[in-house]
Amino acid sequence: MPRIRELLARFGGLFRRAEREREMEDELRSHLELAVAENLRRGMTAGEARRAALVSLGGMEQAREVWREQRGLPWLEVLARDLRYGLRLLARSPGFTAIAIATLALGIGANTAIFAVTESVLLRPLPYPSPNRLAFVREFFTGGGPMSFSMPDFEDLLHQNHTFEQIAVFQGYHGVLTGNGEPALVRGALVSAPLLSLLGAKTALGRGFTAGDDHPGAPASVVLGYGFWRSRLGGGTIVGRALVLDGKPYTVIGVLAPDFPYLLWSPDLYLPIGLWAATPALTSRGNHGSLSAVGRLRPGVSFAAARDDLDSIMARLASQYPATNHDHRAFVEPLSLQLLGDNARALWILLVATGLVLLIACANLANLELVRGSARPREFAIRAALGAGRRRIFAQLLTESLILALAGGAMGLVLAAVAIGPLLHLAPQDVRGFGSGEIPRLMATGIDRGVLFFNFLIAIVAGILCCLAPALQSSKLGLAHTLQESGRATSSRSRERLRSALLVGEMAVAAMLAVATGLMLRSLVRAETADPGFDPNRLLALDVVMVGPRYHSGSAALVSAAEARLVDESLARLRALPGVVSAGATLCPPLVGDCWDYFYSIPGRPASAIRAEDAEFNLADPGYFRALRAPLVAGREFTDADTAASEPVAIINQAMARMWWPQSSPIGEQLRYGEPGGKGKLFRIVGVVADVRQDGLDVPQTPEAFFPLAQMTQGAVVFVARTEGDPSALATAATGAIHAGDPELPVRVHPMTDYVAASLARRKFITLLLGLFGALAVGLAMLGVYGVVSFGVAQRTQEIGVRLALGAAPGDVLLEVVQGGARLAVVGVAIGFAGALASTRAIAGLLYGVGASDPATFAAAGLGLLAVALGACWIPARRAARVDPLRALRFE
Amino acid sequence: MPPSKADVLQGTLDLMVLKTLDTIGPMHGYGIARRIEQVSENLLALNQGTLYPALLRLEQRRWIASHWGVSEANRRAKFYRITAAGRKQLAAEQKSWERMAAVIARLLAGAEEA
Fold it and tell me: Phi first, then psi: what are they for A650, rounded to 5°?
C-alpha cells in the first residue's frame, strides 16, 4: 500500500512543477539559514558561518537532482523528453515524416481493413448462443460422402442420441405469395419447432414455433423475417392475419427480431416442417430430400464423441432397415466450418498478403531511417560522449519510430474505415437467393474494438520493426572515430550492407506477392475464357417456380398435367415471340450451382470405393440444348416422344461419359438413379452433351445427367430464350408469354450473362484485393530501390565527379549504378521465387487452370519486377552520369 | 529481489527519521539532521541530498506529514511530524531492526569465541 501511495504521489509530482520547485528552494534556503544562524550563535563571523554551513550541507545542485528524482517519475519524464525531442526532429524534416507516415498508413490501413473483414467473417464467433457447441449434422453415405437426412432417420437420431442437448432440422423453401398485389416468390425455410430457439432467435412481435405448431394436424402457421415484414408487407399489424402461400392460408404467429442471422442468410419466412410430416416425402425412410440438421452438443461433449454416438445409432438403423440404410452413417462437424466454407482460405491468404505489404513498408522506412541515420552518427556520438547510454539512444530511436508508426496507424485506421465501404460494395452479391455466392457476414464488417486493438498492435509492431535496423547501426558506432570525422555523412560498409539486405528482402516479398497475384489473375482469365459449354450471350433466363395447388400432383416425382401444360404453352409462346430464335426449359440453368445431386450407379459395374458415385441431376425439355447452343456429342436429343408413358431416358454430359465409358459409347447403356445397390429407377442413356458448366466457370464440371422434363419434375422450371438482339429488351415480352398461361406465377428474368458474372464475382473480388496489395507491395519496393540507389549516388557524388573529371565515360557510370541496383533486385526476386515455390500449397486451392508453380507466371512476374526495378535505378543512375565534375568537387 | 546496499541504508535512515520525529515531535529538516548528528555523537553527518529525498519519500508514503511554520529562531521552515501510519511502520521497523541487531551481535560474539 505505501508503495502504491508513493507511486501515485510521484505521478502527482509530475505536475505543477514550478510550484514544487519553488517549495524545494524555500526549504533548502531555510535549511541553510538555520545552519548559518546556529554557526553565528557559536560565535563565527558571518562569512565563516555561511561557508561552514555550505560545506557541511554537501553539493546543493546534486541534492536538488536527487530530490527531483524522488519527487517525480524519472523514466516518464525521460519518455516525455524523448517524445518532445522526436516530435521536434520529425517536424524539422517534414518531407521524411510525410513519406514515412504515408507509407505506414498504407501498410497498416490495408492490414486493418482486411483484418476487419477477417474478424467479421472468420474470427467472430457465430452469432448464436454457445456457438462452439453448435454442430451441422447430416447423414453420411460410406463411399459417397455427406447426404441429406430422411425424416425417419433424423427422428431416430433425435430420440436416441445421448450427446446433443437439442437437434433440429431445416430445409430451404420456395413458395409463391399471393393476395398481396403481384404474386411474389418468397424464399424461406422449413424448420422443426426447436430450430429458431436453438439459434437464439428472438421475436419482435408475437411468438416463435412450439411443438404444438409442428405436426400435421396443427393449424398452418408462419413466422416472418423482420426485413420481409417491413419491406414486402409494409410493416403493419400482422400477427393473427393470414398469408396465402402456394394457395394455402397460413396464420402469422410472429415476426422475428431484426437481423436474426438464420444460418447466415435472411429467409423471408419460416414454416413448421411438421405440417408436412405425414406426406410421403417425409414418411419414407429411403427419401433423402434436402433436410439437414443443426444441433447443440451437451456441455463437454466433443464433435468426435457426438459423431460416434450418432454413428452407432445409424449402424443400428442400417441393420434394422438394410434396404434403405445400408452403409449410412452420421456426419457431424462444427457449424462454423459448414457456414464459412472455403472463404477461410482466401481470407487468410489476403491477411498474409497485407502482412507482407506492411513488412515492405517497414523495410522501406527502416531504409529511410538508415539513410537519415547516416547523417546522424555525429548527433549520437555527441550524445554518447555526454553520457547517454546505448539504451538511452535506443529508447530515443524507438520513441521516434513509434511516433511515426502510431501516426501512420491512426491514418491507416482512417484509411481502412473509409475503404471498407467501397470494398464491401465490390463484394459478390447473391443473385439467386439462399445466401449462396455471398461471403457470409461480410456485410457486418466494421471498425470495432477488436479492429482498433489490432490496428494499435500492428502499429506498435511496425514501430519496433522500423527502428531495429537503425538501432543495430547506432550500437556499432565508434565514438572517437565518428567525432574525428568531418561533418560529412559517413557511409560505413556495414550500414550499406544492411540497407542492401533490407532491399533484397523487400524485393523478395514483392516478388512473392507478384507471383501470387499473377497466378490469381491467370486463374481469373482462364476462368473467364473457359468454355462454358454453351453460349451465354444473347440468352435470357426466366426463373419460374410452379408450386401451389394448381400444379400439385401429389407426388414429387410425377409431372402434373397443369405443370406440363404450362411448360409446353409457355415454350410455344416464347418461341413465337419476334426476336426469339429458340427456347427451352430446364430445372437448373448453367452456372448457378448444384440444384439436385444424388447417388446413382451403372448396372453391372461395381460401385468403386474410391469414387464418390454421386452426380448432379437436371431436367431438360427437347429444345433446351439447342437454345443453349450446347453441342450434342453423341446420340440424340430428347423429343416429344419421350413422355411419362415411354421408357425413361437420360442424356449424360461428357464428364460422366468419360468416367464410365472412356473407350466405348454410352448410348444404349443404362443408369440407375439412387443409391448403389438400391432399387432406383433405370434410365436409358440416349445422348451425350458437352459439359455445360453447372457449378461455375472456375469449377471443373462434375458428371451430370439430364432427364426429360416430361418424365420428372421438381416443381420449378427455368426457361431460356435465345434472342436475336439484346436479351434484356425482351424481358417484359417473355415474362408476358409465361403470365399468359398463369398471371399468378412469379417470374425472375436475367440475361444469362448475369449468371456468368455472378459465378465469377467471388474470384474477381479476391483477385482484385490481392492485386491491390500486390501492386502496393511492388510500388513500395520500387520506392525502396529508388531510395537506396539514389542515396548511394548522392553519397558518391564526389567520387563520381572525380572519375568523370579523369575521363570516365558517363555511360559507364550509368551502367555501374544500374548494375548495382539490378544485382540486388535479381537476388531479391530469386529469393522471392524460392519462397513462392515453397508456399504453393497455400494458394493452390484458389487457382483454376494454372499450376501453383506455373513457369509463365513466374517468368512474367520476375521480368516485370526487374523491369520496374531497372526503371527505379535508371533515374538516379542518369543523375549520376550527369554529375558536373566541377560542382561535385566544389560541393565540399 | 534481495535488498541492495542502498536499500538497507535507506531503510536505516527512514528508521532514524521516524524515531527522531516520534521522540521530539514536529521538527524541520535541519533540526532532524542536527538531532541525528548529536545522538550519533557526530559519527553520522546527513547532507541535504540524503535527507530531503528521504523526507519526501516518507511523506509520499504518508508516514510523515508536513506543514510550513515558524522556527524557534523566528524563521519560516517546513515542519515534519510522524503520522499514525508512520508510528505503525516505526514499530515494525524497530522490531525487525532489533531482531537483526541481536542476530548480528550473537554472530559476532560466536565468531570471537571461536
Answer: -145, 150
A179 Ramachandran zone, left/alpha/beta (phi>0; psi -120 to 50): left
> Are A498 and A370 within 8 A, CB to CB?
yes
CA distance A580 to A573: 10
- On the 0-12 / 13-18 / 19+ scale of CB atoms within 10 A, B98 is exposed
Place of cell 449424360: A652
ipTM of the predicted structure? Answer: 0.82
pLDDT averaged over chain A?
A: 82
Answer yes or no: do B75 and A35 touch at CB < 8 A. no
d(CA B46, CA A785): 64
Q: Phi-psi bin for A143: left (phi > 0), alpha (psi -120 to 50), beta?
A: left
Q: How far apart are the first and last CA of chain B?
A: 33
Ramachandran angles phi, psi of A165, nearest 5°: -70, -40
Mark yes or no for CB contact A27/B53 under 8 Å.
Answer: no
**Residue in B with minimal Cα distance to A67:** B53
The confidence score (pLDDT) of residue A27 equals 85
d(CA B78, CA A514): 73
Radius of gyration of chain A (CA): 38
Q: Phi/psi at A470 (nearest 5 deg)?
A: -60, -35
Closest CA to A209 of A269, A264, A267, A164: A269
Element (H, E) at B88: helix B84-113
Mean pLDDT lowest for which of A104-108, A620-624, A684-688, A838-842? A838-842
Q: Enter the pTM of the model.
A: 0.72
Question: Which residues make Cβ contacts (< 8 Å) with residue A205, sequence separation at least 6?
Answer: A238, A239, A254, A255
Show the cell assigned to A187. Answer: 424464399
Reading the block at residue A337, the C-alpha cell is 466450418
C-alpha cell at A611: 469414387
Q: What percent of chain A has pLDDT over 90?
A: 19
Dist. CA A848–CA A528, nearest whole Å: 10
Residue A851 has pLDDT above 90, yes or no: no
Separation CA B21–CA A821 (nearest Å)? 75
Distance from CA of A1 to the nearest CA of B (A): 8
| Nearest CA-CA partner of A27 in B45, B16, B76 | B76
- Is the distance from CB of A807 to CB of A533 less than 8 angstroms? no
| Contact yes or no for A31 and B89 at CB 8 A | no
- Sheet strands (E) in A85-147: 134-141, 145-147
Q: Give φ, ψ of A126 to 5 degrees.
A: -55, 145
Q: What are phi and psi of A734, to 5 degrees?
A: -65, -40
A512-517 mean pLDDT? 90
Cα distance between residue A465 and residue A401, in whole Å:
9
Instruction: Count the Cβ atoms, other than its own, within 10 Å of residue A438.
Output: 19
What are φ and ψ of residue A579, in 5° steps? 100, -15
**Burial track A343-362 (b if 16+ CB lie within 10 A, e otherwise):** bebbbebbbbbbbbbbbbbb
Helix, strand, or coil (residue B78): strand
Q: Which residues of B touch A (CB under 8 A)?
A: 28-31, 34, 45, 47-50, 52-53, 56-57, 59-63, 71, 73, 75-78, 85, 89
**Residue where the block lists cell 535508371:** A874
Distance from CA of B113 to the nearest CA of A (A): 41
Strands (E), A71-183: 134-141, 145-147, 164-178
The DSSP letter of residue A149 is B
Distance CA B78, CA A759 (A): 84
Place of cell 400477427: A239
Is pLDDT of A633 > 60? yes
Backbone phi and psi for residue A243, each to the nearest 5 degrees, phi listed first = -110, 140
CA angle A330/A341/A274 to nearest 5° reads: 50
- Give yes or no for a contact between A713 and A558, defined as CB atoms under 8 angstroms apart: yes
